[in-house]
Amino acid sequence: MSGPRLAVVGATGIVGRELVALLEKRRFPASSLSVFSSGRTRTGVRFRGRRLRAASADMRRLAECDLVFLASSETVARRLGPALARRGVWVIDDSSEFRLDPEVPLVIPEINAGALSPRRRLIAGPNCTMTGLAVAAWPLHRRSAVREIRIASYQAVSGAGRSALSEYFQQSERRGGFAADGRAPLPRRHPARTLPRPIAGNVFPQVGGFDAQGHTGEESKIASELRKIWGAPRLRVSATAVRVPVVRGHSLAAWLRFAGPFPAARARRLLAAAPGVKLRRTGDYPSPADCAGTWPVHVGRVRAGVDARELALWIVSDNLLKGAALNSVQIAERLLSLGWLNQT
Ligand SMILES: NC(=O)c1ccc[n+]([C@@H]2O[C@H](COP(=O)([O-])OP(=O)(O)OC[C@H]3O[C@@H](n4cnc5c(N)ncnc54)[C@H](OP(=O)(O)O)[C@@H]3O)[C@@H](O)[C@H]2O)c1
Questions:
Q1: Which of 150, 153, 136, 137 is nearest to 298 (CA)?
Q2: Would you say residue 325 has pLDDT above 90?
Q3: 162 in contact with ligand 1, CB cutoff 6 A
Q4: What's 130-318's CATH class?
Q5: Environment class of residue 52 by beta-carbon count within 10 Å: exposed (0-12), middle (13-18) or buried (19+)?
Q6: Domains of the chain, residue spans
Q7: 183: pLDDT strictly greater than 80
């Protein structure tokens, strides 16, 4: 097959596996795909019917590619991203390392594909929680600027990576599965290494570390990345990010405040026509269990807030897909359609 030479670094992680699967599912015209990992494990991934063995990330081999997806840590992104971009390789990074760098476009194609430039080869994919909010509220913000947003997030365990997920499964097993009545005791000695508290049968308002003002890393990312993607530096955002015992799919309760009245009926009309958004009819609503594995950002419960200038929304999206892998593949598809990606 002709097409650009691709690589995925972190291909054995939960985002990386989705990336590889999407490249196949969406028939991305790659002439080759190389996959990389820490090199510590002997795992591989399947692509177009073949099993690819993941090798440890190797600068020489990566520099021979046209496009490299980074789905690994900030440290790996720092080591590889700028060096590859300087050699003319397109790099799409899912980590938070470069998202707020003014030289690096932070892109959600439905919103700001115009930030892409042939001169800026390192591109950042945004935070998975912020993405659902940004996509869902964008058609409303375009009609009438949002002044203020308050959100509470309900974030899946997979958002914290493979090790958090296995921690959750271990804790669930130790509880003998899920106790529907919530009375089963939490294990006293839970194997919590990645998450700050036991997550099986629990929720806690901490995603990331705390800053001096008491905000968590996730809450700050939601605010600062949204301002950058929307180009709205004065947008006021207040967030409480909560981890919940859900495998996959981030949910958000959001309240948007406008300068003037914004009727819910108008919001529903705009959302029904918005790219990347799936609006549920009144009386129905999305939940992670029915949105996991799907591509759009799902919106429901669209209604007035405390007064006519406020709208309340319920938003659910798959953190591994639109929140990470799908958004990156969509950026790559955009580079391809712009004719900026080499066709070998
Ligand atoms: N999970 C989400 O919902 C989500 C959403 C948006 C963005 N992100 C970001 O996407 C990135 C990947 O997240 P994830 O959830 O997929 O994490 P993960 O499941 O923990 O996977 C991490 C991947 O990185 C690889 N890796 C570790 N050290 C490496 C090294 N020195 N060189 C090359 N590869 C190395 C791992 O390989 P081994 O298999 O060899 O350990 C694995 O493939 C993170 O930056 C995360 O913040 C995640």
A1: 136
A2: yes
A3: yes
A4: alpha beta
A5: middle
A6: 5-126+324-337, 130-318
A7: no
169: pLDDT strictly greater than 60:
yes
Tokens of 136: 């869902």
For ligand 1, atom 1, which residue shows the shortest CA distance?
159
Give the Cβ contact number of residue 339 at 10 Å. Answer: 9
**Positive/negative CA dihedral, 48, 8, 226, 113:** negative
Indicate if ligand 1 lies below 6 Å from the C-beta of 7: no
pLDDT digits over 111-133, tens only? 999 999 999 999 999 999 999 99
Q: Give the residue whose CA is nearest to atom 22 of ligand 1.
A: 13
How does residue 1 score in pLDDT terms, banded at 50, 70 and 90? confident
| Choices 3.30.1490.20, 3.20.20.140, 3.40.50.720, 1.25.40.10: CATH for 5-126+324-337 | 3.40.50.720
The residues, any chain, with a CB within 8 Å of residue 143's CB and separated by 6 or more, are 262, 266, 270
What is the distance between the alpha carbons of residues 169 and 199, in angstroms, rounded to a whole number? 9
